[in-house]
Amino acid sequence: MQEKRKHISQMSYKEQEALIELVNNTIFSFCDYCLYKMKKRKIKRKQVVKAIKNGYLIEYHFKNNSHRVLLRGIPNNSRKCVCVVLDLTNRNIITTYYNHCNDRHATLNLSIYDENLDVLQMLNSKKGEKF
User: Fold this and answer.
1) In terms of pTM, does the model score above 0.85?
2) Rounded CA gap, 61 and 86, in Å?
3) Residue 55 forms part of a structural domain
4) What digits encode the pLDDT tens for the residues 18-71?
5) What distances in angstroms separate CA 5 from CA 18, 49, 51, 123, 127, one per listed residue?
6) Does residue 131 lie within any of the structural domains?
7) Residue 20: which domain range?
8) What are phi and psi of 76, to 5 degrees?
9) DSSP state of 46
């Protein structure tokens, strides 16, 4: 199946709720790539865990046969937010990076998102395998 995305602004409440519930009920592991990026970007494990626990959903992304979400954490004292990509299928933290809290993504290209994508159907199609 090809890559698919849905932005939070296009999701129903039920889709948001299902993704947040999956995040909250999953124990994630740091993959090697994430640890490498954390070191390079000077992001601590504690910051990543806090972003997962208290961050908010930005997008759903189906890529490489895995269900992923992008979360954005609450700004720190430097007015930066830690963003985290989670692989719900393999229960990995894929990567993390900083984003300035004032970045409202004025250049966001909504054409890469599919507002008609049924996230609940996508999740249910894989429920029996890994979730």
Assistant:
1) yes
2) 10
3) yes
4) 999 999 999 999 999 999 999 999 999 999 999 999 999 999 999 989 999 999
5) 16, 24, 21, 13, 18
6) no
7) 4-126
8) -90, -170
9) H
